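[09:14] KT: can someone run the structure on this one? pasting the chain below
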Amino acid sequence: PPAHLCLLTLLLPPLSSAAPISPAESISQAYSLALYMQKNTSMLLQTYLQYQGSPFSDPGFSAPELQLSSLPPATAFFKTWRTLDDGERLSLAQGAFLALTQHLQLVRDDQSDLNPGSRILLAQLGTARLRAQGLLGNMAAIMTALGLPMPPEEDTLGLVTFGASAFERKCLGYVVTREYGHWTDRAVRDLALLKAKYPA
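[09:31] RB: done, structure tokens below
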């Protein structure tokens, strides 16, 4: 279907050619993907909460105090965020989405165990991870086009507590799906700044 082809085009890196891809083109591709992702983040969070039972599925559930030390929060003071240079902004986003790809895989594994019949949720988690990987690739292309150094890839999860309780695993999944949405929103803002700086 055309929609699937469009998503595939957004996720795949450009084919090599004689002329290197311009910063404006790289930024435009990443921005389009981030906007596409942004349309589905709230749906992922709501689907996740529905499958977890009370208190997660209770109307109006929110627990902003829950955080993960292995996943950087997307929130930042506006002045601090706005004064970052291009390399710092892209490096922070890359680190976050690298962490998110690993965390989304862990959450999907947990949900396969906790909610094995939740095909819709498992599919959405898999798609979210694929899109996060795609955005990572696009950001790497931007950094290459701008001549910026690439941050090293790290195992952001580190040691995982495999004996975590079902409730702890549900809390982890909640934070991951919530922060996926927040980081996608931030990526849209980051890339909008770059688009203004490097117009097509």
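[09:33] KT: thanks! The two ends are 29 Å apart (CA to CA).
[09:34] RB: yep, looked fine to me
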